[in-house]
Model the fold of this input.
Amino acid sequence: MYEDFGGELSNGAGPSLFAGLTQFENRRRALIAFDLTSIPAGSTITSVTLTLTCTRSASLAEPVSLRPSLASWGEGPSIALGEGGMGTAALPGDATWRYRFYPDVLWGTEGGDLGPASATTPVAGEGAYTWSSPTMAADVQAWLANPAVNFGWAIVGNEDLPQTAKRFASRENDVLHQRPVLVVEYTPVPGPAVLGVAFSSLLSASRLRRRHLGAR
Done:
């Protein structure tokens, strides 16, 4: 999401995500979500870790937070030219600073309808960074229980100082290992009691499972 006068810029299918404040003091926020359907319903989420790769940075370490989106949003076909930091004209279905779904559905609050930060990590130069917290695990648990409210997170950088914006690889990035990855550890629902005592040790040993999920 690119803050601009009309609030109509986007980069829905671009290879990069941006978060923070530009040198011209325009805010940048990114939206990211993951398909959780490969995790069995009723599972207990024990740990969640998101890995993002910073591909460009003009500042020292700055806090970058994940804030849950409280409303649905779109991902249209727009692709910003060049480095992508200036965005491009939004296309139908894109999320922008003003619109959840351009050009018809507005956010309740410009810049996204967002909850409090679920996790914060300092991001300095280029490289991979991780976010993990009990609150993130609670977010995923809630989304697993009710997929209709899985709107993912907004990536929000330091918006108090100019030229703190960071660029991250998106799921469309050409470098596969730089794309966002969500690792979810969970305990599946126990099997039927008829499995009997003979299988109890096997069940206990396999109780914790892990899923590596790519952004959707």
